Amino acid sequence: MRAETWPVTPVLMCAIAYAVAAVPMQDYLILGGVSHSQLATLGLVIGLLVHWRLHSWHQWRTDDTALMRLVVVAALTLSAAFTLYDWRESVAEMRRWGVALFVGFLVYAVPRSWREVRLLVWVLLLAPFGAALFAVYQSVLGIGPAAFGIPGTPFTRSFGTIGQPNSFAGYLNGAWPLLLAVTIWAWQSAWRWRWLMVLMLGVTWCALVLSFSRGGWLGATAGLLVMAWLIGGWWRRGVVIVVAGAVIIVAGGWQLIPAPLGPRLGSASQIVTAPDIPRDEAQQRPDVYAAVERAAQFKAGWLMWQKAPLTGIGVGNYSNAYVDVAYNTWWISRGHAHNAYMQIAAEQGVIGLLAYLGLWFVQWRRTVNAIQHTGLVRWLAIGACGSLVAVAAHECFEYLQVHYLPVHVAAVVALAGVAPHVVSSEGERL
């Protein structure tokens, strides 16, 4: 067989699809002590080597976000090079960041046909649906640690295969906007599988609600508002209703909502109003303990940033640095600052934070530009915008650069960017 006839692009596309599907699998069905995300990384390397062997780099589409991706890599490298703590932790964290950055690049650069785009769309829809279905099963049967119990019910907070409810909610926030966008497209186009899409969306939203993640709920609200605004029409008018409802709930309307949802919504304001008190005192006030602990972790991140404001204390070294900045008897690190922007600033300094925000901006600009197209391409772009905003808002309360979660969002956003380049000649069938 001649080298030119080898199915190089399909091999690499399958590796990319596996990398996306591996995110919710995590350590489940682990093979030989290696996680699926690690195996997917190996698959990407093999696919790239095949490309290199066949000299097909020139076939790749030029990615207008590539420069900012390199800037992020440079910021990570600077942070690791000048770390004040363990450089090995920095290298490990750089690998996790690198997979997401590279998947985002590949999803935009490699696909040459609508068939390959369609493959990724289905992976991006089915992977979170499967994780959500499993999470709802867990929650309804009360599977999980006692600490995950939902007060007054036999249910537990959903955590899926991710392991933590808040991180799991972050994964769903990167996924449900695309599900919603494709569901609306399916309904408008009278697609025969539209009821399946409604079911998938409903299960995913149910899992997000059952996560009982306040940051997740706030992020989802922000993503929904942005999508409604971009869709326009009566959806845009609905933004006013949602905002008014949110104001009423925060102002005390949560008391009219039955437990356990009402009290959970009412406690959301504690995220930003937690008192600055020692751990011993907080233990006597269980109603605010979690919020006070979050504030302490955030304050620790701020103190870390002050130690090395330019390049940070070293990516991946939050826990190592925590012992040097812990205060008010909050001696135990939770591994992150409960705020992605604070943690990035602490670990990577101002350079890393600006690089991260810069990459977000160029991805947002490209995705918004794709909305001018019609049909499914437009809805893919709207869904990607919803994912970007939902995750960005959620990251104000949680560090979501864990468990390879950014891989999914990177793929969603890149897919919205590449779809307009391949749809014209092949249609938009799913």
How would you portray this structure in words?
The chain is mainly alpha-helical and 430 residues long. The protein has one domain. The protein is built from 18 helices and no strands. The protein has helices spanning 8-25, 36-53, 66-81, 87-109, 114-140, 165-173, 176-188, 194-210, 214-231, 234-250, 261-266, 270-273, 279-283, 289-307, 318-325, 340-370, 375-394, 406-422. α7 (176-188) runs antiparallel to α17 and α14 (289-307) packs across α16. The two termini are 32 Å apart.
Summarize this structure briefly.
By secondary structure, the chain is mostly helical. The chain has one domain.
Key terms:
mainly alpha, 0% strand, 430 residues, single chain, 18 helices, 67% helix, disordered N terminus
Major sheet details = none
Beta-sheet strand percentage? under 5%
Total of helices = 18
Kindly state the percentage of residues in helix.
Answer: 55-70%
Structural class: mainly alpha
| Terminal residue distance | 32 Å
Quick one: overall form?
globular
Uncertain segments: 1-7
Number of domains: 1
H/E element order: HHHHHHHHHHHHHHHHHH
SSE map:
Elements: H1 8-25, H2 36-53, H3 66-81, H4 87-109, H5 114-140, H6 165-173, H7 176-188, H8 194-210, H9 214-231, H10 234-250, H11 261-266, H12 270-273, H13 279-283, H14 289-307, H15 318-325, H16 340-370, H17 375-394, H18 406-422
Helix pairs in contact: 1-2, 1-5, 3-4, 3-16, 4-18, 5-8, 5-18, 6-8, 6-9, 7-8, 7-17, 9-10, 9-17, 14-15, 14-16, 16-17, 16-18, 17-18
